[in-house]
Amino acid sequence: MDNSISVFNLASGEEAWTKSYSKLYDVDVLSSPEKIIVIAKDKDNKLQKIVLSKAGTTLSTTAFNSAPITKSITSNGELIHWYAPEGSNKERLSVYSNNVLAVYQAPWNNPVFKMNLGAMSSSRYEDITLKDIKLNGPYAVVKFTGSSLMQSQDFFRVINISSKKIYTIASDWNTRSDSSFAGNELVINSSFNVGNPLGVNVGQPYSLSGMYNLSTGKKTAGISETFTDREMGWNSERIGNHILIYLPEKGRIDIYNLSGRKVSEASITLPNSFRVLDYSKGELSLLIREETGATIQVIHTTAVNDIS
Questions:
Q1: Residue among 173, 170, 189 nearest 181 (CA)
Q2: What 3-state class would DSSP assign to 3?
Q3: I need a labelling partner for 42 at 20 to 30 A (CA). Which of 3, 18, 129, 215 fits?
Q4: Distance of CA 7 to CAs 10, 55, 124, 188, 288, Å?
Q5: DSSP string, 191-250
Q6: 179: closest CA among 141, 229, 220, 151?
Q7: Is residue 55 within 8 Å of residue 33, measured between CB atoms?
C-alpha cells in the first residue's frame, strides 16, 4: 500500500533494510542465486526491473521503454507481474491495463500474447472484479471475484495462451482464495474469517485446498472440512511443498503435503493477522502482526506420520 519493501532478519526479528518506490508493482525473491527482483516506476514514471542483492544493493536496472508497454501504463491501476525464465520459457512480463492482458518477453518490443478480458462476464453475478493474473508455462490464470446479493465468490479462469482454450475453477461462496503453481498443477487455497456475518453453511463440505491439473482442470488432490457451527472458520496457506490449515475454533494448525496427506500438527491459538514465513524440519515460522508492530514466532509441530 505504501509502495515499499522491507527485509527482516528472521534470526533476530529486526528489520535489515527498507526501500520505497514511486509505484511498486511486483516483488520476487530468487534463491539461486540470491536476488530480489523489483518491478516499479521510477521518478520519471518509467517502468523498470531493479535487481537487488539480499543486502539491498542495486545490482542492475532494466527499463521497459518499448512503445506498447509505455502506452499501456497510463495510471497506477495496472496489474504488472514479472516471471523468471523457466524451462523453455524466457523471462516474461504481464501487463493488464484497460481490460487487456498483454504478455511480453525480451527484448520487450511487442506482446507475444494479447487478450481482451473485458468480455469475460457471467449472468450469475451482479458485478465482477479482476483481482490477479499469474503465468505458468503456456497458461495464464486470471482471478476474478463475482458478487451477488451481498455475497461474493472467487473464481479462476485458466487460459491456454497457445490454443486459447479456457476453463473455470470456482471457489466456495464467501471464501477468500489464492492460487499458486506446482509444476503442471494449479494449487488453490481458501480461507474464511471467523465472525463473518453470514457464517459457514453447517454440514456443507468446504474445499480448504485443492490441486488441479493445468491441462485438463481436473482436481487431482484436495483437503476439505465440514463444519458443525456457523461461527467456525479457517486459514489456509501454501508453504513450499506443504499446505498449512489453521482452525481457530479447534486451536490447531495442521500441515499437509501437496497430495493432501497430513504430516504434522500443533496446538496453538493465533491472532487473526499472521503470515507464514517458513516451514522446515517440523518448525513453523510465523509473522504475527499486532497493533504495536510485528513479531516472529517459531512453532514446533508434531509429526503424525513418516511421509513429509
A1: 189
A2: coil
A3: 129
A4: 9, 9, 43, 27, 15
A5: EB-TT-TT---TT-EEEEEEEEETTT--EEEEEEEE-SSTT--BEEEEETTEEEEEETTT
A6: 141
A7: no
Res. 238: pLDDT tops 80? yes
Q: What is the DSSP string of 35-90?
A: EEEEEEE-TTS-EEEEEE-TTS-EEEEEE---HHHHHH--SS--EEEEE--BTTBP
Contact 288, 271 (CB under 8 A): yes
Asked which of 28-37, 72-81, 237-246, 252-261 is least confident by mean pLDDT, the reply is 72-81
Instruction: Determine the Cα–Cα distance for residues 170 and 124; give it in Å rounded to an integer.
Output: 12
Cell readout for 6 is 522491507
C-alpha radius of gyration, the chain, whole number: 20
Q: How confident is the model at residue 120 (pLDDT cuts 50, 70, 90)?
A: low
Helix (H, G, I), strand (E, B) or coil at 119: coil
Least trusted range by pLDDT, from 49-53, 119-123, 212-216: 119-123
Per-residue pLDDT, averaged over 79-89, amounts to 89
Nearest to 157 by CA among 111, 190, 115: 115
* pLDDT for the residue numbered 308: 43
**DSSP β-bridge partners for residue 179:** 188
Let me know: does 194 contact 248? Beta carbons within 8 Å: yes
